[in-house]
Structure of 2-succinyl-5-enolpyruvyl-6-hydroxy-3-cyclohexene-1-carboxylate synthase:
Amino acid sequence: MAILQPIINIAEILVTKNVTDAIISPGSRNAPLTIALARHPQINALSVSDERSAAFIAMGMAQVKNKPVAICCTSGSAAYNYAPAVAEAFFQEIPLIVFTADRPTEWIHQHDGQTIYQENIYGKHVKASYQVGADYSHPDARWHIERVMNEAINTANTFPKGPVHINIPLREPFYPSAEEQVVFERPRNIRQHSSKASLSQETWEELLDQIDDYSKVMVIAGQDATNPEVNQALKGLQEEFGFVVVGDLIANTKGEFIANHDLYLGQLDDSYAPELLITFGKSVISKSLKQYIRKHKPEAHWHVQSSTHVIDTYQSLTDIVSIAPEDFFKELLESLDLRAYKMGDEEKSFEYQEQWFNLERKSSRYIHQVLSSTDTWNEFTTYYKVMENIPAGSQLHLANSMAVRYANYLHLPNIDEVEIFANRGTSGIDGCVSTAVGAALATEAQVYLLVGDVAFFYDRNALWNNFLPSNLTIFLENNSGGGIFRMIDGPSQQPELEPFFETAQKMTAKLTAEESNMEYLSATNFEQLENILTTIPQKSTGARLFEIHTNSVENTAFFKKFKTNFIV
């Protein structure tokens, strides 16, 4: 095994740089690295057979811990199975250290087993891709691997964070003999020091002068983790200067901000449009919000971001403000306060803000009145009741398709005390369950997943492991197909709706729960659902799966009526 000592040392380099979690998928070609990760006393190594699920589990862990998690697989198609999670991690700026074992270069495309072109396999969906040599006997091989590993982990951790790929060709033998000892040698730790970006005083003065020219200022928050500093500054800008702050559920903007906009934006004229738009964070769920701003473009649009990539979601970008959002909004509030103090108590107009607050109050009353009083069993109402019962201090994960969209309509007071997660980097249904499993492994908080049946069954290999955490609860909304396609005008009007878009099926998760040793209850009416909801506060000895059955046709009719009946 001594010839592969530089590979064994990779585990020690990871630990030296505070990477202490690894998800490994079984294989032979990656055996040396598997052995190193599994035997290192400071690495929490878990085995997940399905590479696609493994990568999403690792991503969920990295997202919660806010530090890199390593994943390791064998050569061939196994590496491609990482791709969906790698892409999601890239667009969500989540750090992953992706190890793929490979055949030596001379054996690629030679009709040998498990060989594909793996170098740069993830293309632009990683921050960087690295290839090491296949021969490790020369001292320079150790130097090279140490250098690559240091650069890769530093890159994954540098803002914007993200996945990096290290492709490792390996020759046989892969396994140590019975008498060999695996010894971890002390590596070099090449640290990378960076400084926070800041704006010059001249730039600040220019921005403040621009704000003085506008009476309608709106801030739109994209997906991000809860940031108390940002939320506190936004609250001050709203209360003191009349800013309108809009945030989808996944933005984690906790406070009295605009959150029910999906219900009414399609009815608004240009009098609600901002003159100055300030945006930050990543993706936005609300299609109606994006369409409204694109149609009613602001005179100026600042996007606050630390990266240099030009992101122009609303087709109106005028300025990229290269500074962290918490620094920008805190400084903006302080600067506006100071300027107001120097200029005296000038009365500010809150007319624009009040326009939006009137809509917010009206829509909030409507949502709660309709959903708390209806006796019609349907999917949207069950989402409302489940979300009402999510305890403070927990995590709520939302699967893609209708789950995240339904939830975005529901801004309930208790949700301000809950951290919201969703795979909105690529917005795919693959990996939603696995990500929640990974998150539950990385926290002691209770983790709840709201997921539809297609996304659940597509990713049920997330439950195919021996370490399902007891703090995980899955609410499976089963409407026997892809219900979202009944909501969309295009596919809902086609004869191919059921077999090709909705893909109707009658599967249930009962056997899956039994196989996974999960507590299981199901509901087909409000009484059964209430029985399930009473169990939420109870301490569980294992993971739980609650299945809620509804009818897709009835769901569509109720939701469309719900939206149509609200008049601004």
Q: What stands out?
A: Residues 2-169 form a domain with the Rossmann fold fold (CATH 3.40.50.970).
